[in-house]
Amino acid sequence: MKHKKSFVSIILVISVLALAFYYYYTTVHIGPVEPEHNMIQNGDFEQGEAGWTVNLPTVITTEDKYSGTYSAKVAANVDIHTKKPYDPNRDILQPNVDYYFRVRVKPINPENQGQFWIAILSSYMRLEGNNGVWTLYHYRSEDFGEVVYVKNLVRGWYEILGHFRFSNSTIEDYRYAAGNWAYLIIYVPWENGEGYYVDDIYLGTQSP
Questions:
Q1: 102 and 154 share one domain
Q2: Contact indicator for 123, 146 with CB cutoff of 8 Å
Q3: Which of 15, 69, 99, 132 is the most exposed place for a label (fewest CB within 10 A)?
Q4: 67 Cα distance to chain centroid
Q5: Using alpha carbons only, how large is the chain's radius of gyration in Å?
Q6: Do 109 and 20 belong to one domain?
Q7: In a 3-state reduction of DSSP, which class is residue 201?
Q8: How far is CA 102 from CA 78, 139, 150, 159, 199, in A?
Q9: 186 and 114, same domain (yes or no)
Q10: pTM of the model
Q11: What does each of the 208 residues of the chain score in pLDDT, given as a tens digit?
Q12: 5 and 80 belong to one structural domain
C-alpha cells in the first residue's frame, strides 16, 4: 500500500509539473501575436523596394533595422510611398471602420529630429467648370497621425501606434478619385536633419 501511495504521489507531481510546463510555455513565452492581414505589401522591406516607390536619396538599407535584414532609410524632404495601384478606394477602406497602424522608426541622428508624417494620400485631376482647366486635388486621411512628433533624443527604435476612421464624406472623396492615385505615404520634413530608419509598417483592422 505504501508503494502504491508513493506511485500515486509521483504521478500527481509529474502531472502538476506537466501542467505548469504547458502553462509557462503557452502563456508566458508567447509574444505579441501579429495581425494576420497587413494591408501594406512588404511592410518590413524584406523584399527590397517591392510594393514601394523609393525616391533617392531615400534607400532600402541593411545599415540598421528593427527586425529581419532590411529597413528604409528615409531622407529628409523625400517621401516614400506605396506603389500604385495601392487602392484604398475599392473594397479596402470603408467608412466608419477603425483602422490601426504601426510604424517603427529610429532617428539617424538622435540630436536632430522632429516631425514624422504618415498619411493615406489620394490625388486626382478634376475638370473645373466649363473653362477646360484641370485642377490637382489632394485628400489626406483624417486623424491618421498625419504629423507625429517623435520624442526628443530618442536613441534606438521607437514604435508609433495609432488608429483612424474615415467618414462617409471622405470615403466618397476617395472613390471619386482615380483608384491608382491613392497610396500610403511617409515623409520627413526637410528641417529634420538626416531623417529616419523605418521598418515593420502595418495597416489593418486588427490592433497590432
A1: yes
A2: no
A3: 132
A4: 14
A5: 24
A6: no
A7: strand
A8: 20, 21, 13, 7, 10
A9: yes
A10: 0.64
A11: 545 555 445 444 444 444 443 333 333 333 334 556 888 889 899 999 888 888 888 899 999 999 999 999 988 777 677 765 444 434 355 667 777 888 898 888 777 666 667 766 555 445 555 555 554 444 444 444 444 545 555 678 888 887 776 666 555 555 544 443 455 777 666 565 678 889 998 888 888 8
A12: no
Check whether residue 62 and residue 90 sit in a common domain. Answer: yes
Position 23, amino acid:
Y
Q: How many domains does the chain have?
A: 2
What CATH code is carried by the domain that includes residue 195? 2.60.120.260
The answer to whether the beta carbons of residues 60 and 71 sit under 8 Å apart is yes
> Checking phi first, is residue 102 left (phi over 0); if not, alpha (psi -120 to 50) or beta?
beta
Does 11 share its domain with 42? no
Structural domain containing residue 95: 34-204
Amino acid residing at 97? V
- Asked if residues 199 and 104 have their Cβ atoms less than 8 Å apart, the reply is yes
- Say whether both 154 and 68 belong to one domain: yes
**For strand 79-82 and strand 182-187, is the pairing parallel, antiparallel, or unpaired?**
antiparallel
Does one domain contain both 2 and 41? Answer: no
